[in-house]
Amino acid sequence: MGATEKGTTTGTQRDTGTGAGRSGAGKDADRRIGRRSLLIGGAAAVVGSAVLARDELGRLWWRLPGVEKPRVEGAVDFRGARWVAASTANFRWADRPDDYAIDRVVVHVTQGSFASAVKVFQDPGHRAAAHYIVGRDGRVTQMIRELDVAFHAGNREYNERSVGIEHEGFVDRASSFTDAMYASSARLTAGICARYGIPVDRAHIIGHVEVPGADHTDPGPHWDWDRYLRLVRAARGAGTPV
């Protein structure tokens, strides 16, 4: 991202697909459900099996108006993370990886403090947020569950297929990226890769700058990719808890 932006916190790119709201009552959500239902029904007819339709509809039932998918309040996907909920306007309720396969981790830099990133992710007017924020001291805060689609990449397809991790600091300051941050973020990414079978390489662990159509530059020239991937592989090999 540009050095004048607050990472995904103030960037103008965002997923503007469905509206916020757990029920999915917006017109776009209804149309999506209708299209998928038709596709599911057609596929079931072609193969001559009602099992396919039942399985697919079973994953979609909670998107119907008035239905809420059960959630455990305060649950986190990374052991040791602190839960602070983002505004529901900044992500889309989902059931990944059942409805969208996850095959990417996107690395961001906040272009501001840890506290400012949390604040804007809680702002419904911001319309963007990442799943995690990693501080200079290595603390991890999760604000969106991995099963949900965070508006962090500025590309709808990449939002649906990825987990976004913000890092406290500035792209033009090498001092932003501390040993504690690298180590903690590497453990976090190793766990994500283990959960979803994501290869630990630069094709699957990418910077925001590499997202198609993105106008951001993060994590910038001072982010040490070689070091980061070594740490992720080491954490993965050590059997990081997932």
Strand order of the largest sheet: 1-5-4-7-3-8
- CATH-level-4 superfamily name of the largest domain: Peptidoglycan recognition protein-like
CATH topology of the largest domain: Lysozyme-like
The structure class reads alpha/beta
Low-confidence stretches: 1-48
- Tell me, what is the CATH class of the largest domain? Alpha Beta
State mean pLDDT (0 to 100 scale). Answer: 81
Number of strands: 8
Task: Give the N-to-C terminal Cα separation.
Answer: 30 Å
- Rg computed from alpha carbons, rounded to a whole number of angstroms: 18 Å
**What's the CATH architecture name of the largest domain?**
3-Layer(aba) Sandwich
Gross geometry: globular
What share of residues are in beta strands? 5-15%
Count helical runs.
6
Whole-number total of structural domains: 2
Q: What helical percentage do the residues reach?
A: 25-40%
Element order: H for helix, E for strand: HHEEEHEEEHEHEH
What profile does the largest beta sheet have? 6 strands, mixed
Biased composition (Low complexity): 1-17
EC number: 3.5.1.28
Organism: Streptomyces galbus
Region (Disordered): 1-29
